[in-house]
Amino acid sequence: MTSSATANTGTWTLGDRVINRMGYGAMHLTGHGVWGPPEDPEAAKALLRRAVHELGINFLDTADSYGPGYNEQIIREALHPYPEDLVICTKGGMLRTGPSDWLHGEGTQPYIVALGRPAYLRQQVELSLRNLGVDCIDFYQLHRIDPLVPLADQLGELVSLQQQGKIRHLGLSGQPGVTREQLDAASEFAEIVAIESLYNIADRDSDPMVDLAQERGIAFIPWFPLGHGDLVGPTGALQEAAAGLGVTSAQLCLAWLLRRSPNILLIPGTTSIHHLEQNIAATEITLSDTEWVDIEAICAEITPWRPTPAAE
Prior knowledge:
Blueprint: E1 4-6, E2 11-14, E3 17-20, E4 24-25, H1 41-54, E5 59-61, H2 70-79, E6 87-92, E7 94-95, E8 113-114, H3 118-132, E9 137-142, H4 151-163, E10 167-173, H5 180-187, E11 192-198, H6 207-215, E12 219-223, H7 239-245, H8 249-260, H9 273-281, H10 289-300
GO molecular function: oxidoreductase activity
Domain NADP-dependent oxidoreductase: 21-298
Keywords: Oxidoreductase
């Protein structure tokens, strides 16, 4: 099966599932440090229902390590039984030890490691099936490639689960990004329908991979699509330009990504329904080529912050 974009509709065909390119990343519907349940579970469920039932989002991103487990569970509590067109992506293969391993600027050292042993991956898929309340996961990503385990063993286990009907489509996620070599190697063992990498208007090291994925009919999913405050924070580089255009800086970042390539799928996360609605409105932004050149020039002056090699 191949993947493709539909012109002027804002959709992408992921394997055999048509999804809107503006999705939602549910990671922050958890406790502090992406650990534990959300502080306000009812607000989290209300946001998910607003996104899926009222705003047309039909692509959700989560992972077994978000919570851990609680993020998948809140999606089930909010949305099960799921609409037929909803595609849920979850991920496995990354081990966490507590809330401090995902925090930036609190004097902590992250401890997030890849764990791709086949038995562990099988266990995590089974847990995700239970947490989400499904018999088959629409789209499952290897969250990290474990350098200590042969890739053939990691993907071989996931392909085996796919053949058993427990996974529909497979993808790869990387830190900071999936490389060409990794994609080529993975494609020897599995049909990869999407890759997920660090990418935004100010951090464009993955430009070649966006283009390569498009050539191969593979979706590209950016994480950190809004940077880490250097673009959209209170003193972000895009604040003045966005105000002059009558939009938000976050909307500029998202609109640029949608314009960058038709295979880009967005999963911006927020705990605010207002920000969720603003993010979706980014699909309506149309600027001239000259305006985009000016915005890219502003972002080219930024030295983007990146997480340490151990953290996302």
